[in-house]
Amino acid sequence: MLIIMPLSMIPTFLLYCYVGAITPGPANLSSLAAGIRYGKKVALRQWRGLLAGFFIISMLSVLITYLLGTVLNQYVGLLTWIGAGYILWLAWHMLRSSGVSEKDDTAVPCFRTGLLINLTNVKIMVFCLTALASFVLPYTRSFGALLAIGLFLPFTGPLANLVWVFAGASLQKLFVNHKKAVDIVMAASLALCAVSLVWPH
Fold this sequence. Notes:
mainly alpha, single chain
């Protein structure tokens, strides 16, 4: 029988997954922005890349956690600072590209865009590593247990991304004449995410 974590820990683990997945971050805010600027059809192309990127990061996190175990905890703080820097860069990039014509194919979200967002998204790296190190390693070092959680995690973030995509698509008509303001708000939200990542440290 595969023991992953005590039954009493499952509600806490699920709450951790929900909060970590639904709160604003690079993938969620990019999903919202894509939905607002380009609509559901284009935003879903990017979402498929987000899903693939999340899956890759989750599987890499399983391997890292299995190979390094609790040793990796000392590097989570460094990853957090790198992640904050990346999120600030993403905010700057969003402001810089504000007002770019939607006919410019280089600016339109696609699978590759979503893939790159999550492959460089330190928020999900920390999210996956913390989930594995905090909810699995204290109870077992089994690769099967780590893999089971690693396969579950891609159903958290990408599902939350869909919520943000559909929210953006539903607000598209409302914001069509306020692109610059929307981009400023999105960039400010990303900057706030970056600050909240490092503020307690």
